[in-house]
Amino acid sequence: MLDGHPIRVPFDYVNDDCVKFLRWLVQDGQEVREGDALAEVETSKALVELAASATGRVWQRTKPGEEVRVGELVGYISKNGSRPPDLDTHSVPSAKHDSYGANERLPSHTRFSRKALELLQGTSLSPELFTGRGMVREQDVLAAIEGTKSSRRAQLSGSNTDSALEGISLDRLTLPSSIYELDRGKIDREFLERLQKDSDSFARLSSREKCEIYRGHGASVGDGVVLGDGTVLIAPQIIIGERAQFGERCSIHCRERFDMGQLSSFRSGLLVRGGTVVLGENVFGGRNVQVGGGGNGDPFSLLSVGDGTYLGDEVFVNICRPVLIGKEVFLTQRSILVTHNIGHSILEGYENRFAPIVLEDYSQVGMNCTVYAGSRVGRGSIVMSNSYVISPIPEGKLAAGVPARVIREAKRPMDRERQVETVQGMMREYHELLLRKGYEVSALKTEPLFSFEAHCGEKCFLLSFVETYCNPVLSTQPMDESIIWTFQNSCDGTQNVTAIMDLLAKKLVGSCGIFGESTREFLRKRGIRLQPGPWRYQGGVI
User: Fold this and answer.
1) How distant is the alpha carbon of residue 477 from its chain centre?
2) What CATH number was assigned to the domain covering residues 177-409?
3) Fewest C-beta in 10 Å: which of 75, 92, 96, 222?
4) Using CA atoms, how far apart are residues 206 and 187, in angstroms rounded to an integer?
5) What's the pLDDT tens digit per position in 486-529?
6) Residue 420 in 3-state DSSP?
7) What's the CATH class of domain 4-96?
8) Each residue's pLDDT tens digit, 408-463
9) Domain spans of the chain?
10) What is the dihedral of CA 22, 26, 28, 34, to 10 degrees?
């Protein structure tokens, strides 16, 4: 038995049966450590690096320029350092995993390295930006990101927001696009002064009356905006996107501007005091959220919240210094963000700190946590409930405790088999939920696809799952809505179906009726938030 690990062309990130082996990055017989880059292979869409799965000595089997099958053995890592015998007898897996769906539609005649693709997925940049570039590598994407940041910084140049952001790294942080809108929604001064003197009378008006008056005096207020009973917004610049909602007794006072994107909403009791507050699209806030606290009158007072972020009940955010929260962040119930500490005399050795807080994209802060001035929670990291964060948490980690310390990785990667099992389990959950809601639901089928039908009144719906969707035959019966869950959509349209939901790319193709909307909500509650957005569930069958 061989003492070591084979090196194979990986299934992941590869969408071809064969690839071109470009070059070795190490010498034959060289010592390597687990995770080191070993070689590069070229697919039809990307340049993929092969990484060492173990520590040991590399023995090469494939020469540069050769065509090799996906899954084929190209070398070996021996732990004992000795050259292994001939490896031609090692089997080559026949099945291929299609996990390239998230990057399926790339510009023709343009290839991307694996690291370049991973970087792109974490940004709002379109792959079309690199059309005609030939091979796009990590440094090309980094340069494009930096160029975008520089352009946007120029838009803010000289503003209070620009001063507040100075010195803060925006890496792995997606700010709402509206943060760069410095001119829209300016309130005329006379009306602002009247509003400041008698806000109570204004707050008692109906939502429709308040929206019309704001629009008439310069504010940018979209259609379908709801301003609850007793709610009032006071700021020199007010921007509220379409169908944004404020519950009862919300009180917003900003010295510079207040901006909330479309389909964002807060329940009752929102209290805001500060300089500039910019909330992206699809932000959801619970009851009695408070923004401001001590020092909110400082010139650095800024809160920026990215698209799709959740702020739980009774969250408190102190903005004596900037608080920057990325997209799809979870800041859960009764969490506290504090940007300054005032105690006894700094000259007697007591701590006195004023510093910003950053929660990078996709991070999560558990219930009853405190995040202290100067802290930064990395992209995709999770802080467990009842923790106290006093120092940076690296990207992708799980942290807990007082003070919070890294325990392990925040997520555990799944292989394809486990992903399939998970989706099938989700379908069983959805099936049971509909049954318990009183709907007529067929038995789960496993052939030809994992699927079930549901009936709501006179309407008939079908939900099916297939790893790669390429227009399979779904049902001989006409359906009001046919929904496909898939890991990769290989069709240009929605042939024979109403909507295709790509679970890994988190993309929706097609249109949704009552069943599709309910299915999308079911997925949202399991962390799969489909694009395009913004989107809000308006009710359906669940």
Assistant:
1) 38
2) 2.160.10.10
3) 92
4) 20
5) 998 877 666 778 899 999 989 998 888 999 999 999 999 999 99
6) helix
7) mainly beta
8) 999 888 889 999 999 999 999 999 999 999 999 999 998 888 999 999 888 999 99
9) 4-96, 177-409, 416-524
10) -110
